[in-house]
Write a structure and sequence with these properties.
The chain is α/β, with parallel strands linked by helices. The protein contains seven helices and six strands; from the N terminus they run ααβαβαβααβββα. The radius of gyration is 17 Å and the shape is globular.
Length: 239
């Protein structure tokens, strides 16, 4: 298991030359039962779910359900769960959507501070709880450098919240994603057909329009990341 920064540098140099499947196998060899995966059942999530489950069929797959997902997302998730026989571990926020809105209003309409609080309650807290309860030591995630400017400098392996985080398809572009989905007969999220290039909560996702960057379709263009994939460390807060 990696423990030193120089080890991380050397490993990333090696893994940059490996295939996505080889990166998954590397993570399995290093972390074994401590390895988990996350999914949002977003637009292209079928790629990672298929890729990883072929190598590690029983891997715990963390799915954070905010209570604000599109109906299409729930149907897409159930379809892939059955099709790929996924070991889904669903986590919900400690505070319900109704309680949040009663106490704080619609946080996603309250600028950066509101969005930050919303994401802490609905995404970061349940993810932290999942990682703790599952005794995770490493985390597979489907981030790609081409998705947003905030992800351009990510490496194959990084440290986040004292966990090792592995990005098997970090260097894939949309072409590689499309080719993989087509090769294995896998679907995009249903909202792809309605020009959604990134799908999260219904109130914070929008179709791509002329002149926009894909990252502008999330959170009304105010921000791109929801907090799950920021490397600044574990965020502790009180609801």
């Amino acid at each position: 298991m990696l423990t030193q920064a120089e080890d991380l540098t050397a490993v990333n140099r090696e893994l940059e030359e490996r295939s996505a499947e080889e990166r998954v196998r590397w993570a399995l060899d290093r972390y074994g039962d401590g390895l988990v995966m996350s999914t949002s059942f977003g637009v292209q999530s079928a790629v990672m779910l298929h890729l990883v489950s072929r190598v590690i069929p029983d891997i715990p797959i963390i799915f954070v359900d905010t209570g604000y997902l599109f109906p299409e997302t729930y149907r897409f998730a159930e379809d892939l769960r059955k099709r790929l026989n996924l070991n889904i571990k669903k986590y919900h926020p400690a505070m319900s959507a109704a309680e949040q809105e009663a106490l704080y209003g619609k946080l996603w309409e309250q600028g950066v501070d509101g969005l930050t609080r919303y994401n802490l309650i609905n995404k970061v807290e349940p993810m932290n709880r999942a990682l703790s309860e599952l005794a995770a030591t490493a985390w597979l995630a489907g981030l790609r450098r081409s998705q947003a400017s905030t992800r351009e400098h990510l490496r194959v392996v990084q440290v986040q919240n004292q966990l090792f985080k592995v990005h098997p398809i970090i260097d894939w572009g949309d072409r590689e994603v499309y080719q993989y989905l087509r090769k294995h007969g896998l679907p995009y999220h249903p909202l792809w057909e309605k020009n959604y290039v990134s799908v999260g909560d219904w109130h914070s996702s929008a179709p791509l329009t002329a002149g926009q960057r894909p990252e502008d379709t999330r959170f009304n263009g105010i921000k791109r990341e929801c907090g799950l994939h920021e490397l600044s460390g574990r965020i502790d807060f009180q609801i």
